[in-house]
Amino acid sequence: MRIGILTGGGDAPGLNAVIRAAVLKGEKDADTEFVGFIDGWEGVFNENFTPLFRNDVRGIGRLGGTILGTSRTNPIKDFGGPDRIATVFERNRIDAIMVIGGEGTLAGGHELAKLGFPVIGVPKTIDNDISGTDYTFGFDTAVQIATDAMDRLRTTGESHRRCMVAEVMGRHAGWIALHSGIAAGAHAILIPERKTSIEQIGEWVLSATNRGRSALVVVSEGFGLDTMNDPFSIKGLDSVGRPRLGGIGEMLAPLIEAHTGIETRGTTLGHIQRGGTPTANDRVLATRYGMAALDLAKQGKWDHMVALRGTEMCVVPLEEAVGQLKSVPDHRYDEAAVLFG
Ligand code: F6P
């Protein structure tokens, strides 16, 4: 069996560990070989791929990024679409394609599988917002990086008696903010799932300050302010409480300062959260995903992805994984909110 493997969408620490594990396990079977497509679906359209043998993946499990490169090329809409993919697969004897990606990439894979393509999915995102799996690799690393950064913000914040705002990734879901905020002992955690007013944020900041603490606020990039009571009081917001220009962290810092009188600084962590070496947990999860994905391909379980439920690997139809992102449930936010302020 000749399996193509590609990485699509934004990178996440652990991608290389998936590739390595699949190739190593595949080499144990005399009849399995891998080729890696370069830059996601773009590599398929351009027939740009490289053979992947044991030597090609040596030592990559601990490397961040993806040795194959990635892109947001869409397999249905871009270039020649499914017809071109079918030609490339036939000409190069590709029996299955292992697609490692986030919701967008998996949705593209699902569309292709509906057309009869032999697609296996591996869920990936630092945001941890893919439905059907408890965790995606990359998340643990991003949370660790954000936590380390906030520990650093605490010492400078305390020295200057300032409130510090850290903006973390999470366009649609607040998992990184929730977990890093709990770990760093943040006084407020602001996530896209829960609109919060500037008055409430100010109360948490003042309550921490009044106890002699320098407040730490963590905010997901996708958070929107609750302006229900006074929609016109804050300039520069759109109809869902998001800044028209710039990032939310950048916008919140002066707003908190104006509401509390406490000097406030904002820091956006950005792509630092996606870079560098994966944590041990992410390496383990990614390795298990890579091996489980090979098993799916060998069983011909197309249109499915591997997933983690509790501590066990399982199999989820791609249809269940795409279409709806996994949000932070209310009870998880409320549990953390007990410690705010
Ligand atoms: O989906 C993962 C993610 O890291 C989001 O949290 C973030 O909004 C986005 O990717 C950034 O994407 P890009 O690298 O294309 O700017």
TrEMBL record:
<protein>
    <recommendedName>
        <fullName>ATP-dependent 6-phosphofructokinase</fullName>
        <ecNumber>2.7.1.11</ecNumber>
    </recommendedName>
</protein>
<feature type="binding site">
    <location>
        <position position="162"/>
    </location>
    <ligand>
        <name>substrate</name>
    </ligand>
</feature>
<feature type="binding site">
    <location>
        <position position="10"/>
    </location>
    <ligand>
        <name>ATP</name>
    </ligand>
</feature>
<keyword id="KW-0067">ATP-binding</keyword>
<comment type="subunit">
    <text>Homodimer or homotetramer.</text>
</comment>
<comment type="similarity">
    <text>Belongs to the phosphofructokinase type A (PFKA) family. Mixed-substrate PFK group III subfamily.</text>
</comment>
<dbReference type="InterPro" id="IPR035966">
    <property type="entry name" value="PKF_sf"/>
</dbReference>
<keyword id="KW-0479">Metal-binding</keyword>
<dbReference type="GO" id="GO:0006002">
    <property type="term" value="P:fructose 6-phosphate metabolic process"/>
</dbReference>
<dbReference type="InterPro" id="IPR000023">
    <property type="entry name" value="Phosphofructokinase_dom"/>
</dbReference>
<feature type="binding site">
    <location>
        <begin position="102"/>
        <end position="105"/>
    </location>
    <ligand>
        <name>ATP</name>
    </ligand>
</feature>
<dbReference type="GO" id="GO:0046872">
    <property type="term" value="F:metal ion binding"/>
</dbReference>
<dbReference type="GO" id="GO:0030388">
    <property type="term" value="P:fructose 1,6-bisphosphate metabolic process"/>
</dbReference>
<keyword id="KW-0460">Magnesium</keyword>
<dbReference type="GO" id="GO:0048029">
    <property type="term" value="F:monosaccharide binding"/>
</dbReference>
<dbReference type="InterPro" id="IPR012003">
    <property type="entry name" value="ATP_PFK_prok-type"/>
</dbReference>
<feature type="binding site">
    <location>
        <begin position="72"/>
        <end position="73"/>
    </location>
    <ligand>
        <name>ATP</name>
    </ligand>
</feature>
<dbReference type="GO" id="GO:0016208">
    <property type="term" value="F:AMP binding"/>
</dbReference>
<comment type="function">
    <text>Catalyzes the phosphorylation of D-fructose 6-phosphate to fructose 1,6-bisphosphate by ATP, the first committing step of glycolysis.</text>
</comment>
<feature type="binding site" description="in other chain">
    <location>
        <begin position="271"/>
        <end position="274"/>
    </location>
    <ligand>
        <name>substrate</name>
    </ligand>
</feature>
<feature type="binding site">
    <location>
        <position position="103"/>
    </location>
    <ligand>
        <name>Mg(2+)</name>
    </ligand>
</feature>
<feature type="active site" description="Proton acceptor">
    <location>
        <position position="127"/>
    </location>
</feature>
<dbReference type="Pfam" id="PF00365">
    <property type="entry name" value="PFK"/>
</dbReference>
<dbReference type="InterPro" id="IPR015912">
    <property type="entry name" value="Phosphofructokinase_CS"/>
</dbReference>
<feature type="binding site" description="in other chain">
    <location>
        <position position="221"/>
    </location>
    <ligand>
        <name>substrate</name>
    </ligand>
</feature>
<keyword id="KW-0547">Nucleotide-binding</keyword>
<feature type="binding site">
    <location>
        <position position="265"/>
    </location>
    <ligand>
        <name>substrate</name>
    </ligand>
</feature>
<keyword id="KW-0808">Transferase</keyword>
<feature type="binding site" description="in other chain">
    <location>
        <begin position="169"/>
        <end position="171"/>
    </location>
    <ligand>
        <name>substrate</name>
    </ligand>
</feature>
<dbReference type="GO" id="GO:0042802">
    <property type="term" value="F:identical protein binding"/>
</dbReference>
<keyword id="KW-0418">Kinase</keyword>
<feature type="binding site" description="in other chain">
    <location>
        <begin position="125"/>
        <end position="127"/>
    </location>
    <ligand>
        <name>substrate</name>
    </ligand>
</feature>
<dbReference type="GO" id="GO:0070095">
    <property type="term" value="F:fructose-6-phosphate binding"/>
</dbReference>
<dbReference type="GO" id="GO:0061621">
    <property type="term" value="P:canonical glycolysis"/>
</dbReference>
<dbReference type="GO" id="GO:0047334">
    <property type="term" value="F:diphosphate-fructose-6-phosphate 1-phosphotransferase activity"/>
</dbReference>
<keyword id="KW-0324">Glycolysis</keyword>
<dbReference type="GO" id="GO:0003872">
    <property type="term" value="F:6-phosphofructokinase activity"/>
</dbReference>
<dbReference type="InterPro" id="IPR012829">
    <property type="entry name" value="Phosphofructokinase_III"/>
</dbReference>
<keyword id="KW-0963">Cytoplasm</keyword>
<dbReference type="GO" id="GO:0005524">
    <property type="term" value="F:ATP binding"/>
</dbReference>
<comment type="pathway">
    <text>Carbohydrate degradation; glycolysis; D-glyceraldehyde 3-phosphate and glycerone phosphate from D-glucose: step 3/4.</text>
</comment>
<dbReference type="GO" id="GO:0005945">
    <property type="term" value="C:6-phosphofructokinase complex"/>
</dbReference>
